[in-house]
What we know:
Strand order of the largest sheet: 1-2-3-4-8-7-5-6
Shape: globular
Mean pLDDT: 79
Strand content: 25-35%
Number of helices: 8
Structural class: alpha+beta
Radius of gyration: 22 Å
Number of strands: 8
Order of helices and strands: HHEHEEEEHHEHHEEH
Low-confidence stretches: 115-120
Number of domains: 2
Helix content: 40-55%
Amino acid sequence: xxxxxxxxxxxxxxxxxxxxxxxxxxxxxxxxxxxxxxxxxxxxxxxxxxxxxxxxxxxxxxxxxxxxxxxxxxxxxxxxxxxxxxxxxxxxxxxxxxxxxxxxxxxxxxxxxxxxxxxxxxxxxxxxxxxxxxxxxxxxxxxxxxxxxxxxxxxxxxxxxxxxxxxxxxxxxxxxxxxxxxxxxxxxxxxxxxxxxxxxxxxxxxxxxxxxxxxxxxxxxxxxxxxxxxxxxxxxxxxxxxxxxxxxxxxxxx
Length: 254
């Protein structure tokens, strides 16, 4: 947060050096306003998490332990990324863990070249994004590696010319709404039976995405969910977990 304030002050200072008339009192006022808004947001966010924890019989979790626990290289959300939780609650019952968290995700997108003191050097380019995520970890499940999210207009065009979206000819409602992807189309088609597809179509809100890998189910929003959406995120994850657990059982025994 303080890095953002410093960047904000530097940006205003540069604007002033370029001839933009910005007074020092205005800079201080804007910086203080930003700081106050940040702490107000954090207070209301803490309250929202605490209220939801009571409702779900969850408890607060040490944020530093969340990233290593939920990160999986097989999940697109965390691929080539470092994940840090800034708020987290969770619980465990019958060896099934559930965690709801606000995340900051830093992704290394490539290398940039630079020349300093006559030496060539390469340094990574990091892209930072935020998400709210509910993850359920059940050792008894064996889910395919897959991701599901609402299909955009651009993705419809890409799919029409041979993109990677996995469609089901007998289920146009599911296929027209969602982009379904994964490394093994055969495994995904075999696992995503009609009951699972129908259930997912009914429970996943438009701005939510879902990923699976082995014993883990992730339901998340791109960007931090609003305080009202947090409860919907937890409820959607619980409903999706029931569907995937049933599908995992059916897949194992059939």
